[in-house]
Amino acid sequence: MQRPKLKNEEGDGTEKEAVYLRREIGLLPAVSFIIGMVVGSGIFIAPTGILMNSGSVGLSLLVWALSGVLSLFGALCYAELGTTFSKSGSDYIYVLETLGPLPAFLRLWAEYILIRLAGGGFLCVSGFWPLCGGAVLRPLCCSCGADQTSFVVAINCWSVTLASRAQVTLTFIKTFALLLIIIPGSNDFDLITLDKLPLAFYNGLYAYGGWFYLNFVTEEVINPNRNIPLAIICSMVTVTFLYVLVNVAYYTVLTPAELLLSDAVAVTFANRALQGLSSVIPILVALSCLGALNGGFIGSPRMLFVGAREGHWPAIFSMIHIRRHTPLPALFLLYPLVVLMLITGEIYQLINFASFADWFFITLATLGMLIHRYRFPLQPRPFKVPLLIGVSFTAVCFFIVGLSLYSDPWNTGRSFALTLTGVPVYYLTVHRYRLPRRWRRFFDYCCKQLQILLEVIQQEVQTC
């Protein structure tokens, strides 16, 4: 597809009409992006997992606080990686730069057959679970989730600016929902004495998951060397503070037995403490999940975009719309996969072992950071996390991955096996292109027709 000759803006060399992903994400959208990804449905619907595994209220609050600290450590590691490597793509690009192409391809493969597929579908259904009456009306939940997904894809296809503004708005809404729970529940509270070490950190870290998503869009962040570390620190401190206060409010109003029996803790809490506003909480939960889903559709397609640009995915997915400047093909690939996940009804089964793949590659990314720092000590690092934090977080990640393999070998084993199915795909399509020539010609023809249909081309300005 031919483009008209580019014009320079006031002769300064800037290509005014060039097609590329522009830096449009400032500090506030960056903070909103991280908070919007971390605060999904978990804090409103299912804090029971930590209480169930910890065995006491006091210990569960300690787990929430320490999980926040550990997540902050991981986010700081990603702040160093994001300022050391200027490309978008998050842990895919970090594993590629530090550990090589095969593990990086497996990260890309796992993202689109496990992690984002299950996570997106889970957010769609769980967001409408309180509104639709749970499993009784699951088809209605799935229908609402499909509409939610369509809306999010539409705004992400239309404009990066519109998507980031929507993320800011939804983040303010979900923060209001947290405050709505905190204020009436911040009265008297007695802390139960700690008596044992639980295995509840896995659930806690999952609830804080999403702190690494800003690194998916590094190339679109304004002044990333300043804004990435600042956004990470501000957002994670804020989320940890709010999470602990929300759980204090839960335990102030509800007994541990009531909390364990509740399928939607925020709704149970509202029925008890916010009787006049009890119908508002399910709507706020749905909007919270919408924010997390929107953040996922902002970030995750960028990994596919960068993977295609690096030659690990078909080139069509490294193209962007000539007018909207959005990665249209990558968004369109993700959309039907999430909708299909809603229809199959296997979301909760997938979410259990998708977490293993996620944490496995987070471990590889932070391990790669330590190896890269050792091998290239003189490389400029605009933000450098203390070595103790990097080593501690990597060790905790190894513990989490190893513990999950021990405690749930069936789900984690299947996750590992599905990730390894990417090995033959890598050697057939990336390492050496072994597909028959006829297949290649047909595939190239389809890609060309898609390029014309979607009005997309390769970016014309290097952004990293």
TrEMBL record:
Entry membrane topology: Multi-pass membrane protein
Cellular-component GO terms for this entry: membrane
Subcellular location: Membrane
Organism per entry: Echeneis naucrates
Record keyword Transmembrane helix present: yes
Keywords tagged on the record: Membrane, Transmembrane, Transmembrane helix
PANTHER family: AMINO ACID TRANSPORTER, CYSTINE_GLUTAMATE TRANSPORTER
Pfam annotation, one family: AA_permease_2
The protein's name: Si:ch73-352p4.8
Organism taxonomic ancestry: Eukaryota, Metazoa, Chordata, Craniata, Vertebrata
Transmembrane regions listed in the UniProt entry: 25-45, 57-79, 168-187, 199-218, 230-253, 273-293, 326-344, 350-371, 383-406, 412-430
Molecular function (Gene Ontology), one example: L-amino acid transmembrane transporter activity
